[in-house]
Predict the structure of Helix-turn-helix transcriptional regulator.
Amino acid sequence: MSSPSRAVDQAKHALRARLREMRLAAHLTGRDLANLAGWHSSKVSRIEHGRQTPSEHDITIWCRHCGAEDQAGDLVASLRTIDEMYVEWRRMQRTGLQRLQKAAIPLYERTSRFRIYEPSLIPGLFQTADYALSLMRAVVTFREIPDDTAEAVKVRMQRQQVLTSGGRRCAVILEEAALRTRIGDTEVMAGQLGHLLAVATRSNISLGIIPIRDRAMWPTNGFWIFDEERVLVETLSAELTVTQPHEIALYAKAFAQFAELAVYGPAARTLIASAIAALDM
């Protein structure tokens, strides 16, 4: 899969290409379009070559003068998607982690089907308070942001209630490495893995684990699919939001392939029990 920054660049390129194709279909030169729009003569060239990002108003005017007003709404939506796609963690976390946890609640509450893939961590919806606290403290230290971890953990625990109401379903695929990545001390990990065993018995939750020996796909970042609405991908520096249907379909395809590699039921529980036993080594 593309890196988040590359995905954003590709989306920007696609938008510029559509604008250029529209201008050419209208048999307008860049200077012609600029004159019609009342812009500086070089503005069209700057937009088409990525040296200037068009505003929503620019796109509306562009479509009007190219005789394609019916496409303006779709292109403006594409621009908004690009704006959403790449959000720097430092900006999102500048006041700590609690605000970030609260901001996600509406998305969780309107989602009826979660599909989650995590290669190295237990997902937030299945974390114990101690595991979440250890993880968030590490994030706070690394990012040098205000420490509101206790409050953020409370919000994360409250957010988990979405899985006990509204008939929501959740399919989770973990790499075996997620069971063995030490977050906190031995007691924290033992409690977390025991909790994972318990929540996996719920009828609305499907837990699959990809054994290390069966890894057949290339490594990728963890991602969450919220219905067919969007995909969130967390990286070291940013959160990528994917809303284009064809890109969501790509992540859904990857999730389906990961699901085929995973083991379930007794086999998954055996892997978790093995990880718990390894904590004493």
